[in-house]
Hints:
By secondary structure, the protein is mainly alpha-helical. It has one domain (about 1-5, about 25-50, about 60-124). It is about 75% helix and about 0% strand. The chain has helices at about 1-10, 25-35, 40-50, 60-95, 95-124. Helix 1 packs antiparallel against helix 5 (about 95-124) and helix 4 crosses helix 5 (about 95-124). The longest helix is centred in the middle third of the chain and has 33 residues, at about 60-95. It is flat and about 55 Å long. About 0% of the residues are buried.
Amino acid sequence: MWLGRGVLSRPAILGASAEPMASSRGRIMLKGAGISGLNPKALLLYFSLFPQFIDPAGGWPVAAQTGLFGALHMAACTAVYLTVGVLARTVLRTRPSAARAVTRVSGAMMIVIGGFPLVERLAG
């Protein structure tokens, strides 16, 4: 709820930065891959979803099957994240009002989602 309040009270201003980027695009991509790879939800996916699709008696070793599923998952995530990023950048640059609407909606959603445990605790 605190994050949502912060987003609503100090929305980001879309525009070109006066400062040059400190890192190259490759370095930014590597940082994003590292952050995504360290996400605990990714580990949950590997430990809960992939094992049911791995056949220990199959023709491929378990490590190869796990690697293939991991590579397919990473390729799918990369395609989705790149598409969303490019489309979001295009829409938000051409329509500043859309950027403000996205900021307001995301801030409000953070407050609503943050309030669910509170409502649950009061109701239960």
